[in-house]
Write a structure and sequence with these properties.
mainly beta; five-stranded antiparallel beta sheet; SH3 type barrels; 0% helix; elongated
């Protein structure tokens, strides 16, 4: 059995609302037939791994000294960011 080591810093869970671009067309289109395109609202949750002036990095899963499923979101794309920190630390 692998013994998990506690995190070096507090684990703080965040819910983030952010805006992403809409996909790129995969075929030629006639300009007069183009429909509207709007940015997409995205919602993500994760443990804050990194916070800089330009980005945040969330980790979806943390196990000891390892992480699985990181997501980098540009700061200018963030609409709202809420801490979901509980009063009790994780066991």
């Amino acid at each position: 059995m692998i013994e998990l080591q506690p995190a070096k810093r507090p684990l703080v869970l965040y819910a983030v609302e952010w805006v992403d671009s809409l996909g790129i067309s995969d075929q030629w289109e006639f300009r007069e037939e183009l429909g509207d395109m709007e940015p997409v609202s995205c919602y993500s949750c994760g443990f804050l791994e990194e916070l800089t002036d330009t980005k945040i990095v969330l980790a979806m899963t943390i196990g000891g000294s390892q992480v699985l499923g990181r997501l980098c979101i540009p700061r200018q794309a963030i609409v709202r960011m809420d801490s979901m920190q509980t009063k009790e630390p994780l066991p």
